[in-house]
Write a structure and sequence with these properties.
The chain is an all-alpha fold and about 260 residues long. The chain contains twelve helices and no strands. The radius of gyration is 22 Å and the shape is elongated.
Length: about 260
């Protein structure tokens, strides 16, 4: 079997992972592929900072922003679906929409004078930008819990908190995870603009390509972000599907049902 035929039999997911790992481990080995895009003797591979370090920094800031967005948006959606919190529904939706109303570049411009250059303004911008998908999906998941299931839980003597923890949140979990996935993938690409305010990440490679008119750098930064997006999308999607199957067994009274 030739090497190309063997590569063709790999799944796209494994192929993307292999390319990503190989490029980050030995970027110089890929120099012949990028050399035609580097003009006037410019370097074909970005070497001002280690690409592996920039990738980890990029994932770190996106992961932290997704975590913070989840810690705020999820409880907020829970509160406004309770009887005592319904009066705050309009205010809560307006707050989470704030991040989508203003583009991240505008948030960066406002935050830099307040918190300085670096990762902080980028983190704030990504945090605000990631609230809406998580809030809306959590809201949809909680409001779509069948009334019959809630009535049965009340009949079993479950209080409001027990119903929330044992019934509502587990049934809403697939939609909540979908919101987290959407928020994370959007911010993965959006995080590249953080390098305009000196935030570490793969945007540094793209900006270097723009400033030096080096298409090789532009393609490297874009491909790395794209590969990360594909792998994260598939990985988080796999988790969602497994949770959805588990919740399907729960709804049909299978072995995953709590209390059995």
């Amino acid at each position: 079997m030739t090497a190309w035929r063997w590569i063709g039999r790999l799944s796209p997911r494994l192929l993307a992972l292999g390319v990503l790992v190989g490029f980050l481990a030995h970027p110089a080995a890929f120099a012949p592929l990028f050399a035609p895009l580097a003009e006037n003797g410019a370097p074909a591979i970005y070497t001002q900072s280690p690409l592996l370090g920039l990738t980890l920094d990029h994932l770190r800031i996106v992961g932290l922003a997704a975590t913070l967005s989840t810690l705020i948006a999820l409880p907020l959606a829970v509160i406004v679906t309770r009887r005592a919190g319904r009066a705050f529904f309009g205010l809560s939706r307006a707050l989470v929409n704030l991040g989508q109303t203003f583009p991240p570049v505008a948030v960066l411009a406002v935050m830099v004078p307040l918190v300085g250059f670096g990762a902080k303004p980028a983190l704030i911008a990504l945090f605000l930008y990631g609230l809406l998908p998580i809030f809306e999906n959590t809201l949809a998941g909680l409001t779509q819990v069948p009334a019959a299931v809630l009535d049965a839980a009340r009949g079993m003597g479950m209080g409001p908190l027990t119903r929330l923890v044992r019934i509502e949140l587990p049934l809403a979990l697939p939609l909540i995870l979908e919101g987290i996935r959407v928020s994370t993938i959007i911010n993965l690409g959006t995080a590249t603009i953080g390098s305009t305010v000196a935030a570490p990440g793969l945007g540094e490679v793209i900006i270097a390509g723009l400033l030096s008119n080096n298409t090789a750098f532009l393609l490297q930064g874009g491909l790395l972000v794209a590969l990360l997006a594909v792998l994260l999308h598939d990985g988080l999607g796999l988790i969602e599907r497994r949770v959805a199957r588990a919740m399907g067994r729960f709804e049909t009274g299978g072995p995953a049902a709590p209390g059995r």
